[in-house]
Fold each of these.
Amino acid sequence: MPWPSRKRDKGAIADKKEPDAKVAKTEEETPDKEEEEKSTKPPAGSSKSGWKNWKKTKESDSGGEESKITYCHWLLKSEPESRLEKGVDVKFSIDDLKAQPNQTTHWDGVRNYQARNFLRAMKLGQQAFFYHSNCKEPGVVGIVKIVKEAYPDHTQFDQKDPHYDSTSRKENPKWSMVDVQFVRMTKRFIPLSEIKAHHLAHKADGGPLKNMMLFTRQRLSIQPLTQEEFDFVLGLEEEKPH
């Protein structure tokens, strides 16, 4: 029996609490081209902390300085409320994860090249925030860890699965998944609205959340986090909710 499908990336729905956010180009429009895959795929680092060798280059106003960003944690979005997709309920909350054998499952159904490449960059033992998305109040609810690195996502070959991809071949699969295991609930629910308030403040003063992908590429259901981003958000669980 297949595992429940995770929140897909293709045509992902923006969080309901973000009506004023700049709407990103829907991932349904992502070109299905080899060039797209090459342009978004970072090299897998050999370090356990992940992506040590990845260099993100951007042109600065002063003439093209290279900025190095190290990602070693993740944010995984999933929908805690029922929603039918091609007749299949894609709901999967953190409580659903806790109910799985050994509190472990595979994270399938990702159909966006950049998100897939993030999956492929994940390293054994790395931790991620479990984020409830597309619900009344989205936000971080818990922590999971990667217990199996990327391997072919079986749902791409299942014609009954809503994430079936007729263009993918078993000899050269397009899509990957990882296995994740529940670690713990956060000490309190950390809502998107609270994280956004810090992000806006940090954009002004140069704080750790200034470039957080949750706000620059909010439609991606798999997002990398720097150590500083992860530590700051995790530290919010110790504070009283605003």
Note: The longest strand covers residues 176-191.
Amino acid sequence: VIRHRDVRASYYGVIDKFRLQVSEQSQRKALGKKEIIATLLPSAKEQQQQKEEEEKRIKEHLAESVFFEQTLCQPENRTASSGPSLLTVFLGVVCVAALMLPTLGEMESLVPLYLHLSVNQKLVAAYV
């Protein structure tokens, strides 16, 4: 267990290296070694606060520039897609319709014979 006892904001992002050496208890000769790189990061709560402060500073800085004011006033031309695409919905409807068609070999059906699907075709439709 490696513990960092002196945690300060000034140490965030500092890279430390640890070397692990494996050897038998009775011998001094090392069987192997590995260097581990560790970076001290702020906690999620501190990181969120830092992001909010940074965003606030950026917004205050950009509020002074004319460019920021112009981009705020321009309407957004892109439409936000909410939900599945039209192709996905169409494909889903086709697959459900394929599953409702009769299987090859069913004699008592009002559906024409060329619309009878094999079991493999229905499995593909079910998978899709």
Note: The beta strands are 15-23, 30-39.
Amino acid sequence: GTELTAKPKRSFYAARDLYKYRHQYPNFRDLRYQNDLCNLRFYKNKIPFKPDGVYIEEVLNKWKGDYEKLEHNHTYIQWLFPLREQGLNFYAKELTTYEIEEFKKTKEAIRRFLLAYKMMLEFFGIKLIDKTGNVARAANWQERFQHLNESQHNYLRITRILKSLGELGYESFKSPLVKFILHEALVEDTIPNIKQSALEYFVYTIRDRRERRKLLRFAQQHYTPSEHFIWGPPRKQKSEGSKTNKKPASPVSIPNSHISKHKKPKEPKNTSAGGSSTGKTTEEKKVEVTKNGEENYQDEQEMNCDAVRQNSDTETSQLSKSEEIRDTSDRNEDTSHSKKDGESLNNDCGNHPGTVEKDLCNTENSSNSVSADLQDNLDKDMLSEGTTTKMKDEFKA
């Protein structure tokens, strides 16, 4: 009847708090140069803890076994197990990194710290059986486990004890204690109410990632109902799958665009090798130029210039529009160039687009509106029947 029936939820506060602890409090202001060392002096039995005014030797000798005092007093736990964070007792001061180094060097303080740890384990019904941190049930475990299952404020004390073990050089003591608590809560069902805190807080005080995963796998095997187990690292299958799909996408598109520009112009050279170069018509040359992806627009304009000169006799009505725009010098150059070989003119215009006579190119550039209409009419005439035969006769003449 004490077990929770609803599906548990992860605590954001717990996750944030224990993340800072495992990463050495990255946002905590360390008072390294504060030399009062009150926690170390308390464990040296030089000052009493406040506000009660009791020394450490009196706590270890007279309070041991007095479960009522240990249960109802809420000020001693911050002094027995200090941390680098503020607790409920504002008289207790936080540990500093310098104080931790000095604490580990002091044998007297370490001896009393282990005695305080044994005293609290006995209060919970647990005993320390060796120097490696392994624990087992104490002689009074039934009575103390029942009390621990009901007084849930002690779960905060256990979390503090685990944190302090890691701060003062006893990180290896954490995993045996947490494993024992999980076994009693999930397998033996002696303290079922503690399993939420054990999985939310106790496990995540362990800094070693592998040890945490071992404990979580153990808890997952024995957790009931199994579908309510929500602890552990999140799965990354979807994120990894999306990355693998995105990787091959980028290198495929780049070489395709490169091939389309440089490999296509080679095809018309191979196909035109079998035929005679002098017997090409204007229409065939236009098809070859359109296949070229680098200078398509410029070559097409120059080929239209050749078509205007070659069809000057048959298309007088169309040429009259362009002749009105041309000046007298352009007409003289056109007549002089008409006497040249048609084949050499076509080669100059097609192979050296930058050295073509200025009269042809300037005519196209200066009359953009007229050349647009003229180009449409020329395309229609070039595709009509009988054009190719007229062109051949003109080339022969």
Note: The CA atoms of residues 63 and 69 lie 7 Å apart.
